[in-house]
Amino acid sequence: MPDFSLPTVLITGATSGFGLATARKFADNGYPLILTGRRVERLTALADELAQLTPVFTYQLDVRDAEQLLRFMDAIPDEFKRIEVLVNNAGLALGASPADEADLNDWHTMIDTNVTGLVNVTHTLLPVLKAQPKASIINLASIASNWSYPGAHVYGASKAFVQQFSRNLRSDFAGTGVRVTSLEPGLSESEFSLVRFNGDQDKYNAIYEDSNPLQPEDIADIIFWIAEQPSHININSLEVMPTSQAWDNFKVVKG
Ligand code: NDP
Ligand code: 8X3
Q1: For residue range 97-110, what is the model confidence (pLDDT) as tens digits?
Q2: Per UniProt, what is one GO molecular function of this protein (predicted)?
């Protein structure tokens, strides 16, 4: 008998990295899950894996596509509609070369995904979240929201948007049941860097070599902790790095 005694958690980008680990974390704790992403075969495999732990509804969703999002909302089975936690996780970086060498299409893809996609999902889910006695929106921003570094140009700017959007949502919903968090991780090992470097395994290895980076399970634990806070507590923002990382590697240009 499926157990819907706990509210539903909706995770975008559940097919790898943080989203996948977060799905496993909430499933381990019995939360019904709505899991989305573009790679449907991964969603199917994940649903099979988690089905013994909790009810799971998966849907192939590209967050950039507002019309697909509406079809998704219509497709959610009634028993999953008590959505109290939205993890706005889907996102990506493309490239790390200087701005003048960057591909404009990559810039548009990052803005479309990290900004427009996150806005699409949030706007669509807000009426559902507001209708619950308590709800949490946990947005994946980044240390790149707070700090500049070479090659971060549009990625960092898109994550600064996520951070400020989160703060402004907080202002709108202060005193209501809707909580909002900007979660700002640093160096974390996931497919993120394969995507960023277009599948280049050597660049991926170089990024993480000897750095003991954060793991997706670390971020999943933090997301779970944020969502589980008593309802009078709002974690506004949380920047987290591996201990091997700090703010002291900013580029010095002499000339
Ligand atoms: P991964 O590449 O492992 O996962 C990214 C997820 O986003 C995938 O599930 C992917 O699914 C999904 N995704 C990408 N584009 C879209 C889209 N258009 N529509 C729907 N889903 C999409 O990266 P991480 O888990 O590391 O990153 C997750 C989030 O955390 C991102 O927002 C990232 O910017 C942020 N972040 C990552 C850090 C890191 O160092 N790894 C540090 C700080 C923040 P699919 O391809 O199947 O659609
Ligand atoms: C990803 C972390 O340091 O590559 O958001 O910008 S970083």
Answers
A1: 999 999 999 999 99
A2: oxidoreductase activity, acting on the CH-OH group of donors, NAD or NADP as acceptor
